[in-house]
User: Which sequence fits this backbone?
């Protein structure tokens, strides 16, 4: 049976009404553009006859009630359905405080956007004939009420029960934290591991068992398509950091059960007050990259001496912007061989050393029939 639909993804909106913006001189997020950038994206998406829109978390800057209220009101005005899940910024605390909503409050703001049963912070919903969306919550809290990226045991059991009942439906999964590694050794890297689920392996095993092939994530603020054990994790960069991307995807299944997913990426080029957003934003990121780069170079696996890291870091000022762009080709020929080799691993290079440019514009054959 054939199946065809088109949908959009915009992630990590970090919506911040002007009076809620925190001014941190070192922040990578250009939250000043959050609302005009979203308006620019929505204006484009409303012209495309979408079947639905996915937002994989970090809807707000720091979980402020006013920012959640503004966003849910804006999304309710759209001509297509929208589905959301919470990011770590949306529910930074277990119980509400003066700044942020509590974790259990989140679904009550978004009952029109997946959470028809708001007493539960994850959901399974038939969104089109033959298509089911499962929205997971990757924000857990430890015994000290500190936030961790993890799918709790109860939710994993619920997910398995849901997937056991699925018949003749394509299942899409949306969750904030990454399920598949998008960076070298991401699950164990001292800086990158927090962007992955602590128990990604458990979730991946369930998805593989029930032949779920498509997962949509955010959090990392990078354009990347990664695959493990037949499961594609398509992560979308942040609307408030370079390159301010969003995606339009089209799924197609033919009579022979061959399946394709076409990915087309767009970016916000300008907004009022930021007419050359791409150039300014890349520079903004580069200007703030030095401490991050020194840390990257001195931590495992490179473990460079601090003086050497401080010497190399300025030459890498555009490193993270290039990674965030997707389809990165990275080379620093004047660097020591082991440093150069390690940094190249962050690029879109396959095991045979060829470039595999699939992060922004590609058609993935995800089922052979």
Assistant:
């Amino acid at each position: 049976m054939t199946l065809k639909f088109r949908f959009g993804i915009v992630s990590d909106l970090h919506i911040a009404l002007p009076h809620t913006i925190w001014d941190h001189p070192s922040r990578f997020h250009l939250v000043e553009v959050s609302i005009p950038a979203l308006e620019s994206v929505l204006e484009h998406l409303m012209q495309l006859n979408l079947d639905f829109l996915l937002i994989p978390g970090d809807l707000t800057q720091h979980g402020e009630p006013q920012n959640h209220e503004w966003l849910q009101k804006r999304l309710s005005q759209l001509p297509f359905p929208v589905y959301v899940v919470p990011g770590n910024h949306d529910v930074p605390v277990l119980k509400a405080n003066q700044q942020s909503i509590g974790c259990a409050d989140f679904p009550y703001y978004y009952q029109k956007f997946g959470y028809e049963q708001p007493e539960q912070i994850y959901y399974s919903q038939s969104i089109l004939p033959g298509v089911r969306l499962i929205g997971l919550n990757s924000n857990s809290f430890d015994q000290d009420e500190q936030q961790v990226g993890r799918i709790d045991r109860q939710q994993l059991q619920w997910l398995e029960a849901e997937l056991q009942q699925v018949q003749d439906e394509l299942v899409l999964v949306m969750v904030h934290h990454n399920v598949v590694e998008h960076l070298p050794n991401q699950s164990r890297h001292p800086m990158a591991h927090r962007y992955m689920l602590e128990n990604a392996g458990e979730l991946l095993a369930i998805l593989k068992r029930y032949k779920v092939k498509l997962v949509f994530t955010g959090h990392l603020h990078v354009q990347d398509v990664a695959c493990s054990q037949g499961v594609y994790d398509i992560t979308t960069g942040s609307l408030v950091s370079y390159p301010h991307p969003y995606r339009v995807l089209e799924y197609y299944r033919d009579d022979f059960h061959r399946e394709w997913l076409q990915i087309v990426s767009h970016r916000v080029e300008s907004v009022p007050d930021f007419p050359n957003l791409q150039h300014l934003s890349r520079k903004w990121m580069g200007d703030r990259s030095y401490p991050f780069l020194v840390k990257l170079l001195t931590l495992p696996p490179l473990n460079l001496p601090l003086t050497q890291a401080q010497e190399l870091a300025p030459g890498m000022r555009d490193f993270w912007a290039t990674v965030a762009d997707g389809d990165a080709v990275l080379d620093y020929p004047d660097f020591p061989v082991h440093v150069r080799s390690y940094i190249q691993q962050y690029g879109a290079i396959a095991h045979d050393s060829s470039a595999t440019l699939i992060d922004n514009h590609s058609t993935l054959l995800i089922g052979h029939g």
